[in-house]
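User: Hey, my collaborator sent me this sequence without any context and asked if I could get a structure. I don't really work with proteins. Can you help?
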Amino acid sequence: MVIALIGEASKHPTLIGEMVEVSRRMRVGDRDALRREVDRIKEALTVVDKKLRNCAEAVANDGADALREALIRRAADLRDERQRLLVDQERARQALVASEAGALEERRIRDNLERLGQVLPNLPAAERKELIRLFVERVDVRGAKPSTRRKPQEDPAMASAAASRVMEINIKLHLAELVRGMEERAAAQSESAATRRAISIRGLDLGARVDFSNAQRGEITIVAPVRQTLRLESRVRTVPQPKTLKVVEHAIVRAQKWQAMLETGVVPHRLALAKRVGCTPGAVTKILRMSRLVPEIQEYLASIKNENEAWHFSAKRMAQLASMEPEFQRAAFAKLRKEYSQFVQQTQGIAVGFGPGKQSTKVTPKSSIG
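Assistant: No problem. I've predicted the 3D structure and written it out in structure-token form, which is a compact way to encode the shape of the chain:
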């Protein structure tokens, strides 16, 4: 999105001219503030130098030992303060010189912005990130202020929702890097980042209002200062992927496979089966117990693909069911199926029937098997 905004700005000379003019007016204020800062530091240095001379004279006059030590410590503190003021003074002087360096090169800035908008989309991700960090100082994003003007018969809730999808974006660009241009960037890479950015020079501010209503479809719309719809790259889109239901396999499937392995002689006994499948002998016995369920129950369990349903007809519960006589198995299983059906109907009713402000009660299927 930052790349798209920079590219669009470069296509509008009037917009670039306004940005440069605003920066020029603000830089006049910066120069006045820098001159006042230089004068303030100069006065502070004069005061510190006078105090240092007084300390030196007092120490030279052979005062009392206790007073002498205090004066020496005071002189050390003053020297530290003087050093800090000298650093601040040099930084302020350099900033003032840079601020007075001449008029902004509007044409060159526009050309470099245009080339930047053309080059960035074709760069690898790592190089693009590095180049953006060089030219862009900061990106501020905040919600746009809601408009007090509303169309007649427009629903206030819908208007508020639409306004919440419009964001104000301000991109602060490094002025020195824009004037320097990408051709001179390689020669300047020998300079450290701290050296280049130690002086705070006002840059260009590119402000825009962006509507993200269709961002999930890969489109954003610049509302101001120009109106333009932009397509987002697929790798930067945040389209939520549809959730896929977790497909499960009931333990009866393993019971049938393991029973077949024993009956066909693939494994000689349950201990060998446990070693082969990586389970304890007790777990193998528990799973195989379900092979004694009547065929229609086994068929139903093998068709289960839903996690909640698999939990309701758990292996532990079905192993208990398998210890019953066939007619009791069928009766108990019919009761379990009825309970699960009621549970599904209740949860669907909660999801559909309860509106905002109503609290729903968590419903869980009963655990009895009759």
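In plain terms: The radius of gyration is 38 Å. You can pass these tokens on to your collaborator as they are.
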